[in-house]
Write a structure and sequence with these properties.
Length: 462
C-alpha cells in the first residue's frame, strides 16, 4: 500500500463504495525535526505516514445518514473493510442533522494525480549551521539553549462520488527556542512559524533571548492587580484563535456564547473595538497560505463532512472594529439565515499602527511587557472569560525602559472584552501562537496595549 499513489487509493475506495454518497480523504504526511538541549543537538528524525478517511452517506425516508471511519497504515487488504465499516456506520446511524447534498462543481486540481510533496532533513540545510553558531555564542555568553524545530508537509487528496478531485499541499514549520541561565532561575522564550525555515534566524532569536535574560537579572515582586500591559503578537494570537474557535454562528444564535445577542439573535454588526481592527482569514494570504477548500474529517459545530470540497474565500470576521461574520457550515447558515462562512486555516489581525513592540515599550510610562501565555482554559462561555498563566518572562517597563523581571501571574480576561479596551495596536507581523502551536500556527498579529489587564493572582512558575 505504501507504494500506491494517494490518488489511486482515493479512486479505489470510491469504486468500492456501495453507499448513496462517498467522500474519501487521503492525508500523506512527512515530518522532519531537530531537538536540542544545553547548547547541544540531541535528536533528529524524519517520519512518513498516511491516513485514510472514508465518509459514507446513506439516504433514507427520514433523511441522510453519514458514517465516518479513519485509519492509518492501511494496507491493500484493509481498504475494502474500511469502506464497508464506514457504510455500516452510516446505515446504523440516525439521520445526520447537518446533511446536505455533497459538493459539486469545484474544478479538479491539476496536480491531483501527482505524487505527494515530502519534506526531509534538507529543509534544515541553512538553519542547522546557523543554529550551531547560536549554540557557540550562547555558550560563550553563559546561556543554555533548549528547543526544537519541526517541519511538516501534508498532501491532502479529496475525492467524492459527485466527481470532486482536489488536492492541497500544506507545509507547516515551527521553531521554539528557550534560553536559560545556568542556575535555571531565569528563562526566556521565542517562537517562530515558517513554511520552509528560510526566513528563520536562530542567531537573531538568541540575541533577543540574551537581552531578556539580562533584563531578568533584576527581580521585582509585584502583587496581583490590573496593570497596563503590552501583549506581544504571540499572546494576541493565542487569545484571538480561541475567540475564533468560539465563534460558531449556531451557538451564538441559540444564546450560548459571547456572540449571542440578549433577547435573541447574534451580535453581528455590533462594534467590538474602538480601534479600526480587522480580524480576517484568507487561504491565499502570502506566507500564511492554507487550504482553499473545506477539508472536514468529522462534523461539529463549525464543520460538516458534507461540505468537503466547498471553495473558501477571504472572510473578515471583524471589520474595522465591527463583528462581521460568524463561522457557518451550509447547514448552520440555513438555520441562522447567515451567509456560508466556513473556518479557514489562518488568522490575521490588521488595522493597527506601524510601531514595533520595542517602540511601544519606549512609549510606556509604566506597565508590564509579557513574553507569552500558557495553559489557557475557558471559564465562562457566555463572556468567553479565559484564564491562564504568563510564562518565560514578565518585565516591568518604567519611563520607556525595561527595568527588571517581575513574578508570573494567573490572568482572567476575555479576548472580546480585551478588543473593546485595547488602546493601541502595533504593526502586524507573522507570529507563532505558543499555546495552540500543535493545532494552529498560521497567524499574523500586532502587539496590543491593554490599559488594565487583569492579573488575578501571583504564579510561582518560571
Amino acid at each position: 500500500m505504501s507504494r500506491t499513489k494517494p490518488h489511486e487509493i482515493v479512486e479505489r475506495a470510491l469504486a468500492l463504495s456501495t453507499a448513496d454518497g462517498c467522500v474519501v480523504i487521503a492525508d500523506e504526511e512527512s515530518t522532519a525535526n531537530l531537538r536540542w538541549a544545553g547548547n547541544t543537538l540531541t535528536t533528529n528524525g524524519v517520519t512518513r505516514g498516511r491516513t485514510l478517511t472514508v465518509i459514507a452517506t446513506v439516504d433514507g425516508k427520514e433523511g441522510t445518514a453519514s458514517g465516518v471511519v479513519s485509519r492509518s497504515a492501511v494496507t491493500e487488504a484493509d481498504l475494502e473493510p474500511l469502506v464497508r465499516a464506514a457504510e455500516a456506520a452510516a446505515r446504523t446511524a440516525g439521520p445526520a442533522e447537518d446533511a446536505q447534498p455533497l459538493v459539486t462543481g469545484t474544478p479538479s486540481s491539476p496536480d491531483f494525480t501527482d505524487a505527494p510533496a515530502e519534506t526531509s532533513s534538507a529543509v534544515f540545510a541553512d538553519f542547522a549551521p546557523a543554529l550551531g553558531e547560536a549554540f557557540a555564542r550562547a555558550r560563550a555568553g553563559g546561556r543554555e539553549l533548549y528547543g526544537f524545530a519541526n517541519h511538516e508537509l501534508v498532501s491532502t487528496y479529496v475525492g467524492t462520488s459527485t466527481g470532486l478531485r482536489l488536492r492541497h499541499d500544506q507545509p507547516n514549520g515551527t521553531l521554539e527556542l528557550n534560553a536559560k541561565s545556568p542556575d535555571r532561575q531565569r528563562s526566556a522564550w521565542a517562537g517562530r512559524s515558517t513554511r520552509d525555515f528560510k526566513d528563520v534566524d536562530p542567531g537573531a532569536l538568541d540575541a533577543e533571548l540574551a537581552k531578556r535574560l539580562g533584563w531578568a537579572e533584576r527581580r521585582i515582586e509585584l502583587p496581583a492587580g490590573r496593570y497596563e500591559t503590552l501583549l506581544p503578537p504571540t499572546a494576541v494570537a493565542d487569545l484571538l484563535i480561541y475567540q475564533m474557535w468560539s465563534a460558531a454562528a449556531r451557538d451564538a444564535a441559540e444564546g450560548r456564547t459571547v456572540f449571542s445577542k440578549p433577547g435573541g439573535g447574534t451580535r453581528l454588526g455590533e462594534r467590538l473595538s474602538e480601534l479600526p481592527l480587522t480580524l480576517r482569514s484568507d487561504p491565499n494570504e502570502p506566507g500564511l497560505e492554507s487550504a482553499p477548500f473545506v477539508i472536514a474529517h468529522s462534523s461539529g459545530d463549525d464543520a460538516s463532512v458534507f461540505d468537503n470540497g466547498l471553495p473558501l474565500t477571504p472572510t473578515a470576521w471583524v471589520r474595522e472594529g465591527e463583528l462581521a461574520h460568524l463561522t457557518t457550515t451550509r447547514h448552520s447558515a440555513g438555520l441562522t439565515g447567515l451567509p456560508v462562512a466556513p473556518s479557514i486555516g489562518n488568522l490575521i489581525l490588521d488595522g493597527g499602527g506601524e510601531k514595533s513592540l520595542d517602540e511601544m515599550v519606549a512609549a510606556t510610562e509604566r506597565g508590564l511587557l509579557l513574553t507569552c501565555l500558557w495553559y489557557i482554559r475557558e471559564v465562562d462561555p457566555a463572556t468567553l472569560l479565559l484564564t491562564g498563566l504568563t510564562r518565560d518572562g514578565v518585565y516591568l517597563v518604567e519611563n520607556g525602559e525595561v527595568v527588571g523581571e517581575v513574578n508570573n501571574f494567573r490572568f482572567n480576561e476575555s479576548p472580546v472584552d480585551l478588543l473593546s479596551r485595547a488602546s493601541e495596536a502595533g504593526r502586524t507581523e507573522k507570529t507563532l501562537p505558543r499555546e495552540w502551536s500543535d493545532w494552529f500556527t498560521r497567524a499574523a498579529m500586532p502587539a496590543l496595549r491593554i490599559p488594565d489587564f487583569n492579573m488575578s493572582s501571583v504564579s510561582k512558575g518560571v
